[in-house]
Sequence to fold (324 residues):
Amino acid sequence: MDNREVIINVEGLTKDYGYGRGVFDISIKIHKGECYGYLGPNGAGKSTTIRHIMGFAKPTIGKVQIFGKDSFGNTDKILSQVGYLPGEPAIPAGLDGWGFIRMMQGMRGEANEERLKYLLDLFKFNPDCSVKEMSLGEKRKLAVIAAFMNDPEVLILDEPTSGLDPVMQKVFIKFIIEEKKRGKTILLSSHIFSEVDATCDTISIIKDGHHVSTFNAKELKKEQDRTFILHFFNKENLNRFIKEKNKFEIAYSNEDILLAVVTFPANKYNEFFDSLEGIVITQFEEKPFTLQDYFMSFYKEERTFGGLEGVKGNTKEGLKNNGK
Ligand SMILES: Nc1ncnc2c1ncn2[C@@H]1O[C@H](COP(=O)(O)OP(=O)(O)OP(=O)(O)O)[C@@H](O)[C@H]1O
Ligand SMILES: [Mg+2]
Fold:
């Protein structure tokens, strides 16, 4: 039970665009100070959900509230209180960087010059250039700076690192972690596992417009099965381990290279180590669990995801499925 104030509350949101497209029965609760990751591939429904939270669109069914008020019809107020980074930021081409920054400050009716300077330094951005001449990454940086320059308490970020180079992606992730430490409430959509893994407390996976899983990132890691890769001294040791000693699932074994991959539940460490007694092992490594493994348990065999197909990992399918 989380007693913190609920900042974003989505209950049973459905937006039906027809032909199976849209989002269906989506529920999200984001508490004050929480960093919530919204993970899904292209077309899953991330931006649609976020646009409803920002109040740009009216739900077909369901309730969408931010700060305890319905989002639809309140966009101006929401924009003045939330740092919003759209999936495709629209920046007028006729301006230069400073022009856009001043325009956004004017619309919000406030300017935090100290914070602006901090962000310009952090993202190594020079706003002197005209928007027309900016690269995609530079426009993205400008949109990021404009979203954060008033130091908002709530950040809603739709795929914030797309278009940024790897160095800037790292700067951005560090920035999000700092904002989280400062108590900000953050909703971050992404299809990049590592950035969600590095930043978010609660993660929802969305697939074809439906939530398939919502979980606490730390608990998921604690509960996942463990996978170990064992290298044996010789065939006898390998076979003795498989036939006599091991009580757990052998995911893979190979006599030629004297290797076995063993998977066991997280609370069975002792039994696993007991099973190694009297067996000569030359090398021993744990395969770390990744969010990607878990995610792929929902997507494998159905569609490719960022070029990754059929990634096999230590997954526990259905863990807390649809946990709301
Ligand atoms: N205005 C619209 N009219 C009709 N269909 C739409 C509209 N907006 C989104 N869709 C459809 O709804 C589904 C979800 O789209 P959405 O943009 O929310 O996905 P996304 O998860 O943000 O994807 P991406 O990672 O590509 O940004 C898609 O099938 C899309 O084609
Ligand atoms: Mg999108």
Q: What stands out?
A: The domain at 6-221 is CATH 3.40.50.300 (Rossmann fold). The chain has a mean pLDDT of 86. Residues 166-181 form the longest helix (16 residues).
